[in-house]
C-alpha cells in the first residue's frame, strides 16, 4: 500500500504530467509539415505502448483514504488542462489556416493529431473532473467537452452509463461480436437521446418542465455554440472545418475506449427487468504502467465503477481472479478494435472464458448478445 505521505511529493505525480509532452510535439508537427504531421498519434499511442513493453505493469495500490490535500499535484494536471487545450486547439487553427507550407492532406492529418490531444487526454481528464463534487472541476469538465462538441457525454455517462452498464439500456456497453464501426454509429445515434431522456426524467421527478433553465443541455448548447463561433472567428470556414476534424477525432477515440472497456461483459438478468449490481468483473482492466500514466489510471476501470468519484491516483488495481484483464493497454487494444476480425479473434475467446468463470449457470447467451433482454427499471 502506497502511503499518503509518499503521494504528496511532485516526483510521484510527475509521470502523469507526461501528457504535456504532446503540446511541443504538436507545435513541431505543424511547423515541419509533411510526414511530420503524423507524429502526434505515434507519440501518444506507440510511444506509450512501447514504454508499457519496457516498464511492465504497476499493481501497487495507494491508500484509498488519502485526503485531497495530499493529491494536489495529481489534481493540478487535470485542472490546468482546459487552458492548455483551448490555447493549443485555437492556436493551431490560427496557425494552420495561415501556413503556406501545409496542404489539405497535411492539415487533415495534423488536426486528426490535435484530436489525440483533446480526445486521448482532454476527454479523459474531463471524465475525471465531471465525477468530482466541487463546481469548479465540473465546469472545467464541461468546458473540455465543449471543445469536442460532445457535451451530452456528461449526462449520458453519469446518469445512464454508471447506472445501467452491462444492460441493454447502456448504449456504450459493446455487445459480444459487435464490430467497432457498427458500434460507433449506434452510439452516435443513441447516446444523445438517452442523455436527453435521463435529464428529462430528472426534471420530471422535480416536477419541472424539460425546457427549464436547470436542464444542463442549455449550458451544453451555449458552450458548444461559443466553441464553434470562436473557430470561425479565428480561422474562418476553414478553421471551422479543422475544428470539426479534431472534434470527430477526439470523439472517435473516446468511443474506441468505451468499446474496449466493457466489450461483451454483461450483468446477469435476475428477472422482471432487474439486474445484479455492478461488480469488478464487469469491466476490462489493464495494469500497464505507461498507458495508465497517459490515461490517468482509467484502465483501473473496475474500481472506477465501484467508486466513481474516487480520484484517479487512488483507484485500486484488481487482479485476474476478480476482474478480466486485457493483454495490452487500451491504446493498442483500441487499434486492434479498428479491425473487427482481428478483434474478435483476440477477444471473443476471452469473453467466453469470462462467461464460464463467472456465470457457469447461464446456458443461453443469445439474448445477452442480441441485447433483447428487458430494459432495467429506471
Automatic annotation (TrEMBL):
The principal localisation class reads membrane
Q: Which domain of life is it from?
A: Bacteria
Annotated Gene Ontology cellular component terms = plasma membrane
Q: What is a biological process (GO) this protein takes part in?
A: lipid metabolic process
Can you say where in the cell this protein is located?
Cell inner membrane
- Family statement drawn from the similarity comment of this UniProt entry: Belongs to the fatty acid desaturase type 1 family. AlkB subfamily.
Full protein name:
Alkane 1-monooxygenase 2
Amino acid at each position: 500500500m502506497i502511503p499518503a505521505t509518499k503521494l504528496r511529493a511532485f516526483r510521484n505525480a510527475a509521470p502523469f504530467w507526461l501528457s504535456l509532452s504532446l503540446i511541443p510535439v504538436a507545435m513541431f508537427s505543424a511547423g515541419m509539415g509533411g510526414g511530420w504531421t503524423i507524429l502526434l498519434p505515434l507519440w501518444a499511442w506507440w510511444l506509450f505502448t512501447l514504454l508499457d513493453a519496457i516498464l511492465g505493469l504497476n499493481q501497487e495500490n495507494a491508500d484509498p483514504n488519502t485526503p485531497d490535500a495530499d493529491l494536489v499535484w495529481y489534481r493540478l494536471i487535470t485542472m490546468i488542462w482546459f487552458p492548455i487545450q483551448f490555447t493549443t486547439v485555437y492556436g493551431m487553427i490560427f496557425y494552420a489556416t495561415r501556413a503556406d507550407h501545409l496542404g489539405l492532406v497535411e492539415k487533415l492529418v495534423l488536426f486528426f493529431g490535435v484530436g489525440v490531444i483533446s480526445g486521448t487526454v482532454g476527454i479523459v481528464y474531463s471524465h475525471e473532473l465531471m465525477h468530482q463534487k466541487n463546481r469548479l472541476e465540473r465546469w472545467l469538465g464541461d468546458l473540455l467537452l465543449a471543445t469536442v462538441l460532445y457535451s451530452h457525454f456528461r449526462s449520458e455517462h453519469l446518469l445512464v452509463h454508471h447506472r445501467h452498464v452491462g444492460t441493454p439500456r447502456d448504449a456504450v456497453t459493446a455487445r459480444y461480436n459487435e464490430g467497432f464501426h457498427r458500434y460507433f454509429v449506434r452510439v452516435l445515434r443513441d447516446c444523445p437521446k438517452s442523455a436527453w431522456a435521463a435529464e428529462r426524467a430528472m426534471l420530471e421527478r422535480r416536477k419541472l418542465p424539460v425546457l427549464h433553465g436547470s436542464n444542463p443541455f442549455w449550458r451544453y448548447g451555449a458552450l458548444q455554440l461559443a466553441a464553434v463561433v470562436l473557430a470561425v472567428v479565428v480561422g474562418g470556414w476553414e478553421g471551422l472545418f479543422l475544428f470539426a476534424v479534431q472534434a470527430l477525432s477526439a470523439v472517435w477515440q473516446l468511443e474506441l475506449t468505451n468499446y474496449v472497456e466493457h466489450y461483451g461483459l454483461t450483468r446477469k438478468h435476475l428477472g422482471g427487468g432487474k439486474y445484479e449490481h455492478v461488480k469488478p468483473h464487469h469491466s476490462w482492466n489493464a495494469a500497464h504502467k505507461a498507458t495508465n500514466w497517459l490515461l490517468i489510471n482509467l484502465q483501473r476501470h473496475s474500481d472506477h465503477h465501484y467508486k466513481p468519484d474516487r480520484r484517479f491516483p487512488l483507484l485500486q488495481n484488481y487482479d485476474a481472479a476478480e476482474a478480466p484483464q486485457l493483454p495490452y493497454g487500451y491504446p493498442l487494444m483500441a487499434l486492434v478494435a479498428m479491425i473487427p476480425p482481428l478483434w474478435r479473434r483476440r477477444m471473443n475467446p476471452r469473453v467466453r472464458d469470462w462467461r464460464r468463470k463467472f456465470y457457469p449457470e447461464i446456458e443461453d447467451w443469445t439474448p445477452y448478445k442480441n441485447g433483447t433482454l428487458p430494459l432495467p427499471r429506471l
